[in-house]
């Protein structure tokens, strides 16, 4: 049984990214990432903090904008427009969810597609869905990097994805079924009957539904590779903080069946942030005049 | 065994479209569709002719541009720009394939997304892939209309799509797995091992691979619904024209197993053109000032 560790994959990716950053710096460009955070949502703060920290560690310019929860749509749109226009900013993202009075989808549409490092803009999502991506959606790209790093064969394998979100399930299904990647992909969701039977046919099972420890051994084929994208807090009085983090997979229960599995935390999570950095470098490179 | 006839579905759709056109005309708008045809490819000529004829029959304004095969990229781009700017033109499409010296993808990107009635522009493809479509891709939308017309349940059913093109397989998989539609979708392709076994698990099997009569009874579950999107010419000296048209499905051989099937010709084909008209009406409606 192989443990698929985000840290090991991440180190290899960081080395590659550092080389690219050095290369860009030689050409006079410091890649800049601007993350907009509205309000005080503690989870959002954690994510934004992690992005800034990673950016700084790698030598990117981190230009965050922390805005009060009461900000108006107009003011927020003004901030996006300003970052769109700023030549030192190569990547712009707005941490979701936004407070209820703000319109997420119009903000997503307002971010310059050339700086849309989350790959949430329909233009970039469409390029990816058509098999000609500019940016890659971060979590799916992290999963692809994980599979690649551990040389897990994908071509000709059956992949079952549990979950059809626009952030993980749907884009991942498009990446995995693309020409040259060549997996046979099934997307399951809450309305799939006999889901355990379908899941148990997968060579590679990806759980991205956000139900803690929901995937049991009845859903896992003997020898399958399991990628757990979920991350939930579950009450646990025995822990100092009163909770523990767990994924969508009932880890202990499925371990005896799998050939490889990602732990939670420490699996796919750290790679998502690195893929964001990779997109930012891509945006910075694309902003250069042709050599 | 039910025969799923494009003609019957088409009549119902045409009635609906005619009402909408009358409504638009009352508001002073005649929906206009411009189809660009480059060169003398006979199949393209057939398709373009069919589009013009359908448009005219329904009372749309058909504004075709037939350009010589030797046209330069610049001139072609100029024609697109002109149609983009023409307020009488609500839908613009360039019939593919283009002659080899022309760049299809830059033409696709140049068409104003608001007039992109083929839904080929990444922006529109992305909106659709994210579950918030403006236009619908024509052939997938025709298949959805077919399933809807015959009240074939989709929610909770397993659908296997053979083929992963950007025109049929991939967009159809996204429409069928969307929230509210709720099929469990598997996309198979040339690199899928044991394809017959996978296909034979489908409640609804969609063949869109372009291999004449390739799908045999071993790939069809007892009682399945079969949608045949293929259309190929096969030599047949017994026919007056020396060929016959056939789909991807070995029709005679699978008929005893299916609960419903589309004939070829006369199945999905005619609906594709109607969905193009539907997109053109949508574009015309969207061009109106708010009521």
**In angstroms, what separates the terminal alpha carbons of chain A?**
47 Å
CATH architecture of the largest domain in chain A: 3-Layer(aba) Sandwich
Secondary structure tally, helices of chain A: 10
* β-sheet strand percentage of chain A: 15-25%
Q: How would you classify the quaternary structure? A: homodimer
Order of H and E elements of chain A:
EHEHEEHEHHHEHEHEEEEHEH
Overall radius of gyration of chain A:
19 Å
The CATH topology of the largest domain in chain A is given as Rossmann fold
List the chains of the largest interface with their residue counts: A-B, 35 and 35 residues
CATH class of the largest domain in chain A: Alpha Beta
Counting helices, strands and paired strands, the structural category of chain A is: alpha/beta
Biggest sheet of chain A: strands side by side, in what order? 1-12-9-8-6-7
